Amino acid sequence: MISFTVRMKFAEADHDAVAEMLRKLTLASRKEAGCVNYVSHFLAGDPATVLIYEQYVDEAALEAHQNTPHFREYAEEGFYRLMRAQQIKYLDAIV
Questions:
Q1: What is the pTM of this model?
Q2: Which alpha helices (DSSP H) does 14-68 contain, by range?
Q3: How many whole angstroms separate alpha carbon 77 and alpha carbon 57?
Q4: Domain of 31?
């Protein structure tokens, strides 16, 4: 299992556009066969910071996600272009 968080910073003025792209990406990502969990958040009290929690069954599923048309449209060609900073943290599950 692959689990990680993605934290991104945006201009507050981009909040609504980022939210709409994330809604679409989240819904499409959850339908992927290898996606276990995909949850997008704005930090409470901070409308310019997004935190996404993602889980995939394995590396192949993560790679498949990153090669989907919806990832390209909403992330790479969408909110990534508005992003000011990004931090990815991989997690080790406690079983």
A1: 0.94
A2: 15-30, 59-66
A3: 26
A4: 2-91
Domain count, the chain: 1
How far apart (Å, rounded) are the C-alpha atoms in residues 49 and 69? 25
Distance, in Å, from the CA atom of 72 to the CA atom of 46, rounded to the nearest integer, reads 26
Residue 95, pLDDT score:
81
In which element (H, E) is residue 46 found?
strand 46-56
- On whether the CB atoms of residues 73 and 29 are closer than 8 A, the answer is no
Give me the amino acid identity at 38.
Y
Confidence of residue 8 (pLDDT cuts 50, 70, 90): very high
pLDDT tens across 20-76, in order? 999 999 999 999 999 999 999 999 999 999 999 999 999 999 999 999 999 999 999
Q: Is residue 7 classed as helix, strand or coil in its secondary structure?
A: strand
Q: What is the CATH number of the domain that holds 59?
A: 3.30.70.100
